[in-house]
Amino acid sequence: xxxxxxxxxxxxxxxxxxxxxxxxxxxxxxxxxxxSEFEGRRFALPARIYARPLELHAGLRMPKEAVVQELxxxxxxxxxxxxxxGWYVRTSQGLEIATRxxxxxxxxxxxxRIKVSFDGARLSGVTDSEGKSxxxxxxxxLPIGGIYPAGNEDRVLVxxxxxxxxxxxxxxxxxxRKFFTHHGFDVRGLARAALSLFSGKLQGGSTLTQQLVKxxxxxxxxxxxxxxxxxxxxxLLEAHYSKEEILETYLNEIYLGQDRDRxxxxxxxxxxxxxxxxxxxxxxxxxxxLVGIIKGPTHYDPHRHPARALERRNLVLRETKEEGAITLxxxxxxxxxxxxxxxxxxxxxxxxxxxxxxxxxxxxxxxDEKDLRSEGLRIFTTLDPRVQRAAEQALQKRxxxxxxxxxxxxxxxxxxxxxxxxxxxxxxxxVGGRDPRFRGYNRAVDAVRPVGSLLKPAIYLTALSEPxxxxxxxxxxxxxxxxxSRGTPDWKPANYDKQFHGQVPLRTALAQSYNVAxxxxxxxxxxxxxxxxxxxxxxxxxxxxxxxxxxGAVEFSPLDVAQMYQTIATGGFRTPLRSIRExxxxxxxxxxxxxxxxxxxxxxxxxxLLAAAMQGVVSEGTGQGLKNWLPPExxxxxxxxxxxxxxxxxxxxxxxxxxxxxWVGYDxxxxxRLSGAAAALPIWGEMMAxxxxxxxxxxxxxxxxxxxxxxxxGLRGSGCPGAYDLPFVAGSAPEGRAPxxxxxxxxxxxxxxxxxxxx
Length: 759
Fold this sequence. Notes:
The chain is of the alpha+beta class.
């Protein structure tokens, strides 16, 4: 019996030792994990993507309301906020703006107050607070999205020194009153948690340190074992690190709301998201609201549940006062204020998903995906919010009207828009569909559709590159045409109006988009030769050398078309389209500059003639419907495009400062009644009318001469009735003169008119 008791005691003792050793080993493991992960882990910071910064200077073509809209988008308040920045006021001359500080790729720009004056739709001047003229003032760029880590977590890191003391006091008063005295856990809190076991659901009792451990190291499951692990790790965390280090990490980790598919983490981002300001400028009332949100970011969301959020904020204020952290006067003043959260709409990971997708694709060429999602890179892009807004609104409005009228077919039409700067190749706007917020199929980049007549300028460029054979006056045969090729059916192109037009000048064939004359011209030049010029214009997609390709049986995306027309708009200089200007580290150190890259792909003379002919498309051809939106003085150059069975509608055009491509069609490629002039052109016109484009003034190359042409004979006709100016490559203009251009004939006509009507 005694031996049995002795054995039992030894068993208990050894069992205790084993448990003790296991506990020690488990604790040592947790200790190693706490130290290694807390010290070694860096917050995964998304690559933050910005639009172009708005640069204010005298002469800028931008009305005051457009500047105001950009300020609103940036979260500027429309009233002075002394000792702060990020506000504007209207004045009799224009605007007074208190700009925010921002770290650009070329360094820190300090905050300052400026005054901007306007003269109609232009800026007439920019001055500082003392009235001194400023050559250029730059607003910080609008954040337009990011490339996020797992869970789409987003945060802006802050230092504890940047956090107002009243925020810390409110946080401690509500979430953990003994934070600065306990060692990771609160005995009373643990007792409450233990009592909750009887209800069958573990809850309560967490200190700020335990909350940090749960979010930083553990899963969100609520079990006794997980709670025990949390307790031990909290004690270990407190043993190794200061309260300040723990609190700072907590403030950067805590979850504070949801913006669609983007998770708002940390006080730094929450301050921007809810109040459009930096943490250091949070008021007592604003701090109380953010502290109150911690308990339930969804339940107390001030955008969706303002009354509930206001009640919670006031509770935080009351508890902060009762702890002596604020005075009665401060409490009363804060409680009397409204929530005053920014009316910023919920936009999720990006309000411009199609454009951000293009940026992401271009970034992958130079950066690892892991770095894009964790290193906090800052991406400065080319997007112009004003242009983007005009493109979205024009596309949505017109497609909705088309659906309502069912003019082209049943409801469900889709579209895409690309807008670029002709000189720099920067993509200013990109709309991937009628719902610009949809994060899915990007038609501007991925919808590869037949381009129809948009390919015709490449044919005419090929011809005009041979001035000894072709000029804008060269007659083309628009009579019946059959193309025979071994192994393929005969090809018989037809015109849109189902008629033939006989001999027509080259410029007229392009302006009226005559298929038969164009097809005959293209086959005479050589299909391969034409397609090679399409490649030289910048299109990299493979194209089959079929005769039907001449009339647009090749398939491009709207972005491909924009690249092709970019070279036309620049007079033969091929500039790869780009959506990124600069990339910097989180601290602002430059990483990569996406400089302008340009090479001359064509001689300037035929490009000048082609652009002049495309101006004729708008002034007297298939694009003349633009006069309903834009005045003829702008001299827009463009081209309509309609594909077989009217499945796709296109319009491509450029002014002095913008190139735009519009596509309209059905995703399922059904037969419709679409045409470029009726479906795509109105969207282009409405968009550009909202942007007040600059006139297109083509710079005339030295090798081009402008000659007055008699419309009756096609010969030199200076002084003839109805004569019009036409450009020619030097030496290719008609040598003969029309009879009416003879000086004696002119004098005879003038004398005859004087005898009839008098001087």
